[in-house]
Write a structure and sequence with these properties.
This protein is of the alpha+beta class. The chain contains four helices and two strands. The radius of gyration is 15 Å and the shape is globular. The two termini are 16 Å apart.
Length: 83
Protein backbone atom coordinates (compact mmCIF):
# COMPACT_ATOMS: atom_id res chain seq x y z
CA UNK A 1 0.00 0.00 0.00
CA UNK A 2 1.16 3.54 -0.61
CA UNK A 3 0.38 6.44 1.67
CA UNK A 4 -0.56 9.85 0.28
CA UNK A 5 3.12 10.89 0.51
CA UNK A 6 3.97 7.86 -1.69
CA UNK A 7 5.59 6.00 1.25
CA UNK A 8 5.28 2.24 0.76
CA UNK A 9 3.80 0.19 3.60
CA UNK A 10 4.04 -3.59 3.39
CA UNK A 11 1.55 -5.94 5.01
CA UNK A 12 1.42 -9.62 5.76
CA UNK A 13 -2.15 -10.71 5.19
CA UNK A 14 -3.45 -14.02 6.48
CA UNK A 15 -6.67 -15.07 4.77
CA UNK A 16 -8.61 -18.21 5.57
CA UNK A 17 -9.74 -20.33 2.65
CA UNK A 18 -13.29 -18.93 2.72
CA UNK A 19 -12.26 -15.25 2.82
CA UNK A 20 -14.32 -14.97 6.04
CA UNK A 21 -11.40 -14.02 8.23
CA UNK A 22 -8.52 -11.64 7.53
CA UNK A 23 -5.59 -10.70 9.69
CA UNK A 24 -3.48 -7.67 8.72
CA UNK A 25 0.00 -6.99 10.13
CA UNK A 26 2.58 -4.46 9.00
CA UNK A 27 5.83 -6.11 7.93
CA UNK A 28 9.28 -4.58 7.58
CA UNK A 29 11.56 -4.82 4.56
CA UNK A 30 13.90 -6.95 6.67
CA UNK A 31 11.09 -9.41 7.47
CA UNK A 32 10.30 -9.65 3.74
CA UNK A 33 13.97 -10.42 2.99
CA UNK A 34 14.01 -13.15 5.65
CA UNK A 35 10.76 -14.60 4.27
CA UNK A 36 12.16 -14.68 0.74
CA UNK A 37 15.28 -16.53 1.89
CA UNK A 38 13.21 -19.02 3.88
CA UNK A 39 10.58 -19.50 1.20
CA UNK A 40 12.92 -20.38 -1.62
CA UNK A 41 15.77 -22.20 0.14
CA UNK A 42 16.18 -25.18 2.41
CA UNK A 43 13.29 -26.93 4.09
CA UNK A 44 10.70 -24.34 3.09
CA UNK A 45 11.61 -24.96 -0.55
CA UNK A 46 11.02 -28.70 -0.01
CA UNK A 47 7.55 -27.93 1.37
CA UNK A 48 6.85 -25.55 -1.51
CA UNK A 49 7.74 -28.27 -4.02
CA UNK A 50 5.59 -30.85 -2.23
CA UNK A 51 2.68 -28.38 -2.11
CA UNK A 52 3.12 -27.56 -5.81
CA UNK A 53 3.57 -23.94 -4.74
CA UNK A 54 4.24 -22.61 -8.25
CA UNK A 55 0.96 -24.13 -9.46
CA UNK A 56 -0.86 -22.75 -6.41
CA UNK A 57 0.83 -19.37 -6.90
CA UNK A 58 -0.52 -19.19 -10.44
CA UNK A 59 -4.00 -20.13 -9.19
CA UNK A 60 -3.75 -17.33 -6.61
CA UNK A 61 -2.56 -14.80 -9.19
CA UNK A 62 -5.44 -15.73 -11.48
CA UNK A 63 -8.01 -15.77 -8.66
CA UNK A 64 -10.72 -13.15 -8.95
CA UNK A 65 -12.03 -11.92 -5.62
CA UNK A 66 -15.75 -11.27 -5.74
CA UNK A 67 -17.37 -7.90 -5.14
CA UNK A 68 -18.70 -8.75 -1.67
CA UNK A 69 -15.35 -10.22 -0.56
CA UNK A 70 -13.58 -7.12 -1.95
CA UNK A 71 -15.86 -4.88 0.10
CA UNK A 72 -15.17 -6.94 3.24
CA UNK A 73 -11.42 -6.77 2.60
CA UNK A 74 -11.56 -3.01 2.05
CA UNK A 75 -13.53 -2.50 5.29
CA UNK A 76 -10.94 -4.60 7.10
CA UNK A 77 -8.09 -2.46 5.74
CA UNK A 78 -9.85 0.77 6.69
CA UNK A 79 -10.57 -0.51 10.21
CA UNK A 80 -6.95 -1.54 10.62
CA UNK A 81 -5.60 1.80 9.42
CA UNK A 82 -7.90 3.73 11.76
CA UNK A 83 -6.49 1.95 14.84
Amino acid sequence: MRKENNQLINFKVTVDNTFDNLEWNKISNNEISVWRRQSFNGQANWYNEKAHSETEKQKTINCTVGTEASKRIEKSIIAYLKK
